[in-house]
Design brief:
Layout (H helix, E strand, L loop, with lengths): L6 E7 L2 E6 L10 H16 L5 E5 L4 E3 L4 H4 L4 H6 L16 E5 L2 E3 L1 H8 L2 E4 L4 E3 L13 H9 L1 H10 L3 E2 H6 L5 E2 L7 H13 L3 H16 L2 H14 L4 H11 L10
Parallel strand pairs: 2-3, 3-5, 4-6, 5-7, 6-8, 7-10
Antiparallel strand pairs: 1-2, 8-9
Helix pairs in contact: 5-6, 9-10
Bound molecules: octanoyl-coenzyme A.
Octanoyl-coenzyme A binds next to helix 2, strand 6 and helix 4.
GO molecular function, one term: enoyl-CoA hydratase activity
GO cellular component, one term: mitochondrion
Protein name: Probable enoyl-CoA hydratase, mitochondrial
Length: 261
């Protein structure tokens, strides 16, 4: 895609958009210009009716080795505070469509946080996660302490945040940080993520969006609030054509034809 300098975009399968972080020499360090392009591409695909799910990946060596330390090193408190540095990097978490992180190699610091902002994380056996910020005199700033604590608990999050040690793909899977490690015989982690995205894209878009909203309610609020939210969204889907079609197709023993409304 000629309109971007630091990412590549593609539509590798029906209903699937793929964004590849492309600063290989810097191990995909997340600079402001890179994130601007990433947000723009994600927003474009979120609006694109031919896309049902998105995949973000990096290179084999690095998903992303963190925010760009060389860009950050001379910034002052006034710079980062008044310019709301990295605030709009969280826009990924507000997209309507599901985003899958396909992680190979280093997912460190902001790279780990970027993966955690996605809805599903698939890991290659080489994936390495960590929040090494403590070793450069700071702490995670893109949700690492918050999202990790919800996903892997306080004790593990404290250990990672306070020591900066890395976690292997298998350990991340055992902790529930990633949905699974893709074994080599299944192909690359990107291929597996594109396949998974294709499966999601083959469902009713409106039901998928509702499912994402409902799961996010579990992640963000209390159980009581979440149960109410889920039931309201479930009830709401009875106003859609896809609920009528999906249930009619089941009763008639045929495949549903989604209208996505
Ligand atoms: N920033 C800038 N450049 C980087 C970064 C980075 N985070 N990581 C790697 N690079 C560059 C290196 O400087 C090097 O460039 P050059 O060839 O010009 O010297 C090139 O990438 C290759 O890296 P290495 O030579 O270091 O490769 P190694 O295989 O020896 O080591 C490591 C790989 C272990 C990943 C190592 O590069 C490393 O430790 N990187 C830094 C990891 C880190 O500390 N990350 C956290 C950064 S702070 C942060 O992310 C704050 C988050 C803010 C919120 C973001 C929300 C999304």
């Amino acid at each position: 895609d000629t309109q971007y300098e630091f990412i590549l975009t593609d539509k590798p399968a029906d209903g699937v958009a793929l964004i590849t972080l492309n600063r290989p020499k810097a191990l995909n360090a997340l600079s402001s210009p890179l994130f601007k392009e990433l947000n723009a591409a994600l927003a474009r695909f979120d609006e694109d009716d031919t896309v049902g799910a998105m995949v973000i990946t990096g290179s084999e060596r690095a998903f992303a080795a963190g925010a760009d330390i060389k860009e950050m090193k001379d910034k002052t408190y006034a710079d980062v505070y008044s310019n709301k540095f990295i605030e709009n990097w969280g826009e990924i978490a507000r997209l309507r469509k599901p985003v899958i992180a396909a992680v190979s190699g280093y997912a460190l610091g902001g790279g780990c946080e970027l993966a955690l902002m996605c809805d599903i994380i698939l890991a290659s056996p080489t994936a390495t996660f960590g929040q090494p910020e403590i070793s450069i005199g700071v702490i995670p700033g893109g949700g690492g302490t918050q999202r990790l604590a919800r996903v892997i608990g306080k004790s593990r999050t404290m250990e990672l945040t306070l020591t900066g040690r890395n976690v292997s793909a298998d350990e991340a899977a055992a902790w529930g940080m990633v949905s699974r490690v893709v074994p080599p015989e299944e192909g690359t982690v990107v291929e597996a993520a594109v396949k998974l995205a294709g499966t999601i894209a083959s469902k009713s878009r409106i039901a998928v969006q509702a499912g994402k909203d409902a799961v996010n309610a579990a992640y963000e609020g209390t159980l009581a609030e979440g149960l109410v939210t889920e039931r309201r969204i479930f009830h709401g889907l009875f106003a859609t054509q896809d609920q009528k079609e999906g249930m009619a197709a089941f009763a008639e023993k045929r495949k549903p034809v989604w209208k996505h409304q």
